[in-house]
Structure formats: structure tokens, C-alpha cells
Task: inverse folding
């Protein structure tokens, strides 16, 4: 016990706040170790960054490609919308179907084949497409009066 007290005695005698050479050396070694660890960590991150460069470049290229595709799709849609006929009335313009005959309707000889469609209808649809005429549904014919059936005398005699 006495030896331990003798060893601790000089430490107790020192003024508070003053450090021994041993303490200074120990703190300096700890600081150097911490700095070395930080340097090695930075170097490892730099190496990792170098290894990640290829994947980062690939990710950037993919992102640019997606953005370019979206931009092109947006431009195509805008062009389609601008070239499409506008909605003038209640009804929307409907593109006419192809004017062809079914295989059952075709004649035996191609010489007797007659052209399908109507020039008047084509011109009318063209005017609708160019927003010069409003597209409409055909007006339904309404009768102003009901048809009355009257039995004639001659019909009654027959039955």
C-alpha cells in the first residue's frame, strides 16, 4: 500500500490543470491515430467513389434517356392535338372507316368491280376535319301526325 501511495503522491502534488509529459504524449498519439483513421476513411471513400463512377454514369445516362423519351412523347402528343380537328359542337369528329367491300361482296371478275364510297361524303368529312363544318348526328325525321288506318268497304267484303 505504501508503494502505491508513494507512486500516487507526486501526481497529487501537481497543480490542477497541468499535464505530465506522459499525458501529453498519450493525447498526441491519440490525435495522430484519429487523424490517420480519418485519412484512411477519406481514401476508402475516394476509392469507393472511383468504383461507383461506372454505375453513377450508367444511372445518369438512363435518367437522361428517360427524360428525352418523355420530352419526345410530349412533343408528339402536342403535335397530334394541334393537327386533330377541334371540337366545334356537341359531337366529336369521327374518322370515316375505310371504304372497302367484304370478300363476300366482291364480284367474280375484278373488271366488274365498282369503286366504293361517295365523293360528296368525302368532301363533307374533309370540311368537318378542317373545322369548317360542325360535326353532327343526323337529324331524326319526326312525323307531325299519326298515321290513321281506315278500313275500306271493299276490303271488308273480301274477308
Result:
Amino acid at each position: 500500500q505504501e508503494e502505491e501511495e508513494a507512486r500516487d503522491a507526486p501526481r497529487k502534488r501537481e497543480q490542477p490543470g497541468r499535464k505530465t509529459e506522459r499525458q501529453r504524449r498519450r493525447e498526441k498519439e491519440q490525435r495522430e491515430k484519429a487523424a490517420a483513421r480519418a485519412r484512411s476513411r477519406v481514401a476508402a471513400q475516394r476509392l469507393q467513389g472511383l468504383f461507383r463512377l461506372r454505375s453513377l454514369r450508367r444511372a445518369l445516362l438512363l435518367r437522361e434517356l428517360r427524360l428525352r423519351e418523355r420530352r419526345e412523347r410530349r412533343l408528339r402528343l402536342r403535335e397530334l392535338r394541334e393537327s386533330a380537328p377541334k371540337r366545334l359542337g356537341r359531337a366529336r369528329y369521327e374518322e370515316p372507316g375505310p371504304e372497302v367491300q367484304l370478300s363476300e361482296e366482291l364480284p367474280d371478275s375484278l373488271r366488274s368491280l365498282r369503286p366504293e364510297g361517295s365523293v360528296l361524303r368525302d368532301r363533307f368529312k374533309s370540311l368537318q376535319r378542317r373545322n369548317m363544318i360542325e360535326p353532327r348526328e343526323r337529324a331524326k325525321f319526326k312525323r307531325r301526325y299519326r298515321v290513321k288506318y281506315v278500313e275500306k268497304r271493299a276490303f271488308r267484303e273480301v274477308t
The chain is about 60% helix and 0% strand. Residues 118 and 140 are 22 Å apart (CA to CA). The radius of gyration is 48 Å. The chain has a mean pLDDT of 83.
